[in-house]
UniProtKB/TrEMBL annotation, chain A:
Membrane-spanning segments: none
Alphabetical list of Gene3D superfamilies matching this protein: NagB/RpiA/CoA transferase-like
Matching InterPro entries: FTHF_cligase-like_sf, LUD_dom, NagB/RpiA_transferase-like
Name of protein: LUD domain-containing protein
Annotated organism of origin: Sneathiella chinensis
From TrEMBL, chain B:
Presence of the UniProt keyword Kinase in the record: no
Name the record gives this protein: Iron-sulfur cluster-binding protein
One Pfam match: LUD_dom
Originating species: Sneathiella chinensis
Transmembrane stretches, start-end: none
InterPro entries linked: 4Fe4S_Fe-S-bd, 4Fe4S_Fe_S_CS, FTHF_cligase-like_sf, Helical_ferredxn, LUD_dom, LutB/LldF, LutB_C, NagB/RpiA_transferase-like
PROSITE patterns associated with the record: 4FE4S_FER_1, 4FE4S_FER_2
UniProtKB/TrEMBL annotation, chain C:
Pfam family, one: CCG
Protein name, entry field: Fe-S oxidoreductase
First and last residue of the signal peptide: none
Highest taxon listed in the record's lineage: Bacteria
InterPro entries in alphabetical order: Cys_rich_dom
Record-annotated Cysteine-rich domain positions: 10-91, 139-223
Length: 225, 474, 257
């Protein structure tokens, strides 16, 4: 008998029943297909503007910084200013996503844009978020050919771009948006990111930047919403 | 890992004499409890979410076979592999086989209690494969060659000085000659040392906080980001998870996420919650090429349908130990196996045998704070009591204790006899105390008088005074 | 059991510790119940609620004792105990003991529904307030785990203590932490219990109160015993003693010295 058979057999024996079939199985299958929501916190039910405010408040409470720009075209200049304010290197690793690579980087010649996956040497990474979740101040990032997940983790400083139109109130809305965009199968990774990396493993002292980025900056793009 | 639960009393004695440990436990007692209370107060739906979280887990446990098969099918559809393992040994062998197939020399590891449970590190090392823990706490205790003392803060018992010493000893080979004491710099050292390990490791092993049937995803929750580097950079990603971690849908996972971090650290969300589904896709430019889920039973299915089933709701948040006065006193290592605190006291007897772990369910004042804070409402005191009944039935533990209870029960069941005995006891004890009102030392009550005086009876029992009072009319 | 006109019939569950160790708590309870307008009976067949056996894993003895308690308190409108722990045993655990015996379960549930912890009974059911009780002391109240968690007794004792003239009530840190009594636990694991009671006592002393009170004699004997062993002067009384105007009586474990 294989371990699989043993395990399934034990479950059924302990539960004093056979394999779930027929109507029982249909019910469970339906339960999955329904994606029924459980309790969704009231705080997430806000008009868009309120969601963006809540997102920023939560994100900043987690030690990240945020700013809003009127249009995506403003991003390169704002990044230039951000890097100079923070005294960060001007070489940035950018996800190979049209949304970012198509920006007018030539307007900021001092910034060196390198397109690709994250590497050990990267000091600054720039990647697009799939959604923002206001409830907890959380970014949803998807992996894909244009959005390698390493850009979110390897650089010491992470800048994420989030369109205000992609802001949702609660996790459940983000899952629905994801299913609408990608179908039922998920990309290889879905990263929910709430603030920069941290640890409290040495005497409960909070230290930022344990393994992931030490800083997280979120640029919210008000794309006509 | 080696089981030392039998020596609970001795270990606890040593732990309570350890000033560093006391300081560490004080930090837990204050920091985690306040943080959790604040987080719970911030979310009006928190109590209802706990109810729902428990319901979801119960639903899964009632239909575990269905969801496991569903999960497997989805993992395979996304190009991953599921390895069913009935025992710890099967799980170790499954991991080894995957590592061998990947020609692995080093593996990086994210935090995983299941790999502690199956003692994977020692096993891999004995097979010539170097395991490298990447969660800072796990890394520290790996250097110290110790087991974790807390399920979410494995190195909570370590002081900054001890970390300094460990890093000084082990990081010289990487060019760190100075003895660093500043926590920020210590973290920086570990970050740099481990960064290189992530990139060069052949296999990355993580645990899973949840397995999602709907999508065949595995989910890890971290604050450091180590789990993400562990699973994105090596060519092979192995998830080692126990089978009760399954939840039906992303919506169900969301409910559990809402109670997990709040209960654990008081955060609304941990920094990184990562859903992994299969290996890298055709056009992806990063991510592992192989994705394996090693699914461990390890005695869990035997708990289904029994008084212990509710233990399988556990989402390993650590709230029970953060709030446990016994854990605060004795620390995590005293429990003598992987899981400390109330969850360990309830679970370990099943996993290592009640004879070995008999102290754990007995060393509780039944204060009930663990149940009060458990996000999935596991009735921990009820389960501790279940184990006490087992030890009593199976005559495990000191015979005199059982005699004492049986002897006391004999009187308690016979009111008239009981009255006579208590009348006598009240007089004798009152006489021993004299005008002091308390007794400093009593041979047959050493358990009491070794640490505290015994307030003495007033001399006459209530029942005899009441009778007299009534006879004389009021 | 012919109820007197207008009076509410209450059976007192004395508890084994009060019976043996501190009868004055029992008399304080009777006094308070009578002041609140109750007629108090003390069924003769009672001994103990069974917790020592229950917590030691001796289910059979526990069931026997529980059955005797159920029988002894049959028919009373209310059953009241000056202890959250014993009341909690009857209310929460007796029904669980008989879940496989429908007749006994019914009887256990019936008793459970009639059973109350004394202070919450006075405050919630009888709407009682102590009248003309005076105690010029700074007092801190310790929540026993079973009062707090099983019986949800939190505000009632504080509200009643607040009615005592000149009494200043102060709260200790880490109010919800156990004192380390735990019945047989404190005897089987004295070292761990010591650690717990010391932490509790440190928090109590930090309030600068000169008296500690609680609704459970077990906790109080543990706290008083340890206070005396440490040579501390803080006085220890059961909350019913204070409310019944017996606040000047000798504290628990206090002698003539």
């Amino acid at each position: 008998m294989t371990a699989r058979e043993k395990i399934l057999g034990r479950i059924r024996a302990q539960k004093k029943r056979g394999p779930l079939a027929g109507a029982d199985a249909d019910l469970l299958k339906q339960r999955i297909a329904d994606h029924a929501r459980n309790i969704v916190p009231e705080r997430s039910r806000l008009p868009k503007a309120g969601q963006v405010d809540l997102f920023q408040t939560k994100m900043e409470g987690l030690g990240a910084t945020t700013e809003r720009v009127a249009s995506a075209a403003d991003i390169p200049a704002r990044i230039r200013d951000y890097l100079s304010q923070k005294n960060l290197p001007t070489r940035i690793k950018v996800s190979p996503s049209e949304i970012l690579t198509g920006l007018g980087w030539d307007t900021v010649p001092m910034i060196e844009v390198v397109v690709g996956a994250g590497t050990e040497e990267d000091m600054v990474g720039l990647s697009p978020a799939f959604a923002g979740i206001a409830e907890t101040g959380t970014l949803m990032m998807l992996s894909g050919p244009e959005t390698p997940s390493t850009v979110n983790f390897l650089p010491e400083n992470h800048i994420a771009v989030l369109k205000v139109s992609d802001m949702v109130g609660a996790f459940e809305e983000a899952w629905d948006a994801l299913r609408a965009a990608h179908g039922e199968a998920l990309p290889r990774t879905v990263n929910l990111i709430s603030g920069p990396s941290r640890t409290a493993d040495i005497e409960q002292t909070l230290i930022m930047g344990a393994h992931g980025p030490k800083t997280l900056h979120v640029i919210l793009v008000e794309d006509g919403t | 890992m080696q089981v030392t639960s039998r020596k609970f009393k001795e270990s606890a004695h040593e732990a309570m004499a350890d000033e560093d440990l006391r300081a560490a436990m004080n930090r837990i007692r204050t920091a985690f409890t306040t943080a959790r209370a604040d987080a719970a107060a911030e979310l009006p739906e928190f109590e209802s979410l706990r109810d729902q979280a428990a319901e979801i887990k119960d639903h899964v446990l009632d239909n575990l076979d269905y969801y496991l098969e569903y999960f497997e099918q989805k993992v395979v559809a996304e190009g991953g592999h599921v390895h069913w393992c009935s025992t710890a040994e099967e799980a170790r062998q499954a991991v080894l086989k995957i590592c061998r197939d990947a020609n692995a020399r080093t593996v990086t590891k994210g935090k995983s209690m299941i790999t502690e449970e199956i003692a994977l590190n020692k096993f891999l090392a004995s097979e010539g494969i170097e395991p490298i823990e990447t969660d800072l706490g796990e890394y520290i205790i790996q250097l110290a060659d110790e087991p974790p003392s807390h399920i979410i803060g494995p190195a909570v018992h370590k002081t900054r000085e001890q970390v300094t010493d460990l890093f000084h000893e082990h990081h010289q080979q990487y060019g760190y000659q100075d003895r660093e004491e500043d926590p920020e710099k210590l973290v920086g050292e570990a970050r740099t040392v481990l960064r290189h390990k992530y990139v060069t490791a052949d296999v990355g092993i993580t645990g899973a906080n949840f397995l999602i049937a709907e999508t065949g995803s595995t989910v890890i929750v971290t604050n450091e980001g180590n789990g993400d580097l562990t699973q994105s950079l090596p060519k092979t990603h192995i998830v080692v998870a126990s089978l009760e971690k399954i939840v039906p849908t992303l919506e169900d996972a969301s409910t559990l996420m809402r109670v997990l971090a709040r209960s654990a650290t008081g955060q609304e969300m941990s920094v990184y919650t990562t859903f992994s589904t299969g290996p890298k896709r055709k056009d992806d430019i990063d991510g592992p090429e192989n994705f394996h889920v090693v699914l461990l039973d390890g005695g869990r299915t035997e708990m289904l349908g029994t008084e212990l089933q509710e233990l399988l709701r556990c989402i390993r948040c650590g709230a029970c130990m953060n709030h446990c006065p016994v854990y605060h006193a004795v620390g995590g290592h005293s429990y003598g196996w992987v899981y400390p605190g109330p969850i360990g006291a309830a679970l370990n007897p099943q996993m290592v045998g009640i004879e070995e772990a008999r102290h754990l369910p007995n060393a509780s004042s039944f204060c009930g704070r663990c149940e009060e804070v458990c996000p999935v409402r596991i009735p921990l005191p009820k389960i501790l009591r279940y184990w006490r009944e087992k030890t009593f039935e199976q005559q495990i533990g000191p015979q005199p204790d059982r005699w004492a209870i049986e002897w006391w029960g004999f009187f308690a069941k016979r009111p008239w006899l009981y009255r006579q005995t208590t009348r006598l006891a009240a007089r004798v004890l009152s006489m021993i105390a004299g005008d002091k009102g308390r007794i400093r030392s009593l041979p047959f009550a050493k358990g009491w008088t070794s640490v505290r005086d015994l307030p003495a009876p007033e001399g006459k029992t209530f029942m005899e005074q009441w009778k007299k009072h009534n006879r004389e009319g009021r | 059991m012919s109820p007197m006109s207008g009076k509410i019939e209450v059976a007192l569950f004395v508890t084994c510790l009060v019976d043996l160790n501190r009868p004055s708590v029992g008399f304080a309870a009777v006094k308070l119940l009578e002041q609140a307008g109750c007629r108090v009976s003390v069924p003769d067949a009672q001994t103990c609620c069974g917790q020592p056996a229950y917590n030691s894993g001796d289910r059979k003895t526990t069931r026997d004792i529980a059955a005797a308690v159920i029988e002894a308190f049959r028919g009373y409108r209310y059953v009241v105990a000056p202890s959250g722990s014993c009341a909690g045993m009857i209310k929460k655990h007796y029904p669980a003991l008989f879940k496989d015996d429908p007749d006994m379960l019914l009887a256990a549930e019936d008793l459970a529904a009639r059973t109350h912890e004394l202070v919450s009974f006075l405050a919630d059911v009888m709407d009682f307030e102590p009248d003309d009780v005076k105690l010029d002391r700074k007092v801190t109240y310790h929540d026993s785990c079973s009062s707090l968690r099983e019986m949800k007794v939190v505000n009632q004792p504080r509200k009643l203590l607040d009615e005592v003239d000149d009494l200043e009530l102060v709260e200790a840190e880490d109010r919800e932490a156990c004192c380390g009594f735990g019945g047989t636990f404190c005897i089987k694991y004295p070292e761990i219990s010591e650690e717990m009671v010391d932490r509790k006592i440190d928090n109590l002393l930090a309030t600068k109160a000169d008296m500690v009170t609680a609704g459970d004699l077990g906790c109080l004997m543990n706290i008083a015993g340890r206070l005396h062993r440490r040579g501390e002067k803080m006085k220890v009384l059961h909350v019913t003693e204070i409310l019944a105007g017996m606040g000047k009586e000798r504290g628990i474990g206090e002698g003539d010295d």
